[in-house]
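User: Can you predict the 3D structure for this chain?
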Amino acid sequence: MTSVHWAADPKAKRYTPTRSHGPRGMNATTLLIAQECANLKECRPGIAYLARKLRISERTVEYHLGMLREAGLLVYRTKGGRVAQGRDEASVYERVIPLAFDEAHGIRTTGEGVQRRPVGAAEAARKSLGKLARKAARKVRRPRRRTPISGQGRCTLMEGGSTGAFPAAGSIPPSETKLASGASSHPTPKKATSRPRTLNRVGRRHQLARELIDNVPWLSRASAPRIAWIARHCADAGWQWQEVQAAAEEAGPIDDMDSRRPSGLLAYRLKGAHELYASAKARHLMLTAWEDSRLRERIRHQGWDGPAAAVDLEQQTHTAAAAMDTIRAARQTQTQALSAADLAGATEHFLGEVSIEALSRAEVIEHREFAAQDPTYVRNLLRDLGDRDARRLLTNQLVDKALAALRLNTTTPVPAF
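Assistant: Here is the predicted structure, written as structure tokens:
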């Protein structure tokens, strides 16, 4: 500890740390760690042990142990590390008096290595050695932290005077008219400052990404941050999600340059779109042309799970017309088979029920498959058969799904069958 106090003297500046970060030099924390190492029978201090005992961080302990090693006051005997079963083994040190300390005080030694022993000292250095020895004999304590109020006098609440009387004895209570009754509001009511939050540029990008993921079927499983980055130019230009979808699906299906990720396909389709449709009028014309195209309507209803083949809309129209003719023919046949009395007593609901039950299983399956592909066909059945019969024929799930798709695309023109 005598050599530690000699090396840590801030006025002499005998030691300067080599690292650019950490403590600038030895201080009271270094002396505390050295004192703990000196008190150990075997110098094997753990980093966590010193940090817990001195109430400092483990990084601080590592800094000051490194300075003691650089000053030649501690040397490794065994360097610790992680051993079997995942345990951390503490390093074992040897406490060393550096050779510079002996040369500075003219200490004469005998022996070599660990057998080296002091046998005398220079006359001029005996006074300084005595001061260092007295410092080493005293226990090092942590310096008291000075707070902003430490230099001021302490205030004692309810401090009485020399008379011993209660200090509040002569005070006059306030008038009852000035006391709060609880019925009136606060004298200075707070103003309502809650306003609609205005999105910045990044918020607008993420808002557009969420709208695309919620409304575009082939982007339903995409990552919102990724879509926000891909469509950032469109969001900054004030595009709506319908315009982004129209620009992405305007080019049609691509076979050789298709992407496995929906976000990759969107990035390829939107490349340069914000420059091509720079004005709001150009975007409106592009959106109108996309909505008028039956091919884009078919792709939007079906979804985009890969390369899509061209849809034969003429064949689809004939199929829908044939399906409606089948139901009308079955209804007309059942009506002619009834007698006049029965026909007078039959209701429209009964006739619809008989016509639906006259369909074969293959025809019912064909109607449901076609309804799953085209929501407009479901709307036509609802108009001709009524809600109850249409749901009996197509199931509630298909009808509800088609109505939801039609609500999302209210501006889409409906093909006439």
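Strands lie at 74-78, 81-82, 88-89, 92-95, 108-110, 117-120. The longest helix spans residues 313-337.
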